[in-house]
Design goal:
alpha/beta, 2,3-Dihydroxybiphenyl 1,2-Dioxygenase, domain 1, 2 domains, 3 helices
Length: about 160
């Protein structure tokens, strides 16, 4: 991926979610200067949403992995409450939690508006086909596209995510 990823600080537009893909590097690679450090393994990323089960369905269709857990609302919660998760093979599990006071982030960020505090980066081998697939699942293409080899899209509730070569 480019050094100046679409949402990275180098591009001046947010955070860089590019992380080398590995499940459990040797301790010497995780903490080269601290061999006594505890073992920490990222297992999941949790995304808040006004309807987490519907958003999990979107990401399951987008990524081609099943929704592995889906629970409805607790007593007294609205029907769209609950949570769900999508296991992504060897990568982290995506969790989706209900947010009662949801406001979609604005990207690129604007003063006074909610901003994206994270985003998902999804590697693809055919950018045009992947964008077409994402749109067919319910994503929306962002107006601003800062790089040729990255496409910024929004999921159905407004979280930005990137497809990249």
């Amino acid at each position: 991926m480019n050094a100046a990823h679409a949402l990275s600080p180098a591009a001046g537009l947010g955070f860089d979610g590019a992380v080398p893909r590995t499940t459990d590097p040797a301790p010497s690679r995780r903490y080269p200067d601290r061999m006594d450090a505890p073992r920490l393994v990222l297992t999941s990323i949790t995304v808040t949403a006004p309807d987490p089960r519907a958003l999990a369905d979107f990401y399951a269709r987008l990524l081609g992995f099943p929704v592995t857990v889906s629970e409805g609302p607790k007593p007294g919660e609205p029907p769209e409450a609950g949570w769900a998760q999508v296991r992504t093979g060897e990568g982290p599990t995506l969790g989706f939690e209900y947010e009662r006071h949801w406001r979609a982030p604005v990207w690129p960020a604007e003063p006074g508006a909610p901003h994206a505090t994270q985003h998902l980066d999804i590697h693809v081998d055919d950018l045009d086909a992947a964008v077409e697939h994402a749109l067919a699942q319910g994503a929306r293409l962002a107006d601003h596209q800062p790089q040729e080899d990255v496409r910024v899209l929004f999921d159905p509730v407004g979280h930005p995510f990137c497809l990249f070569l």
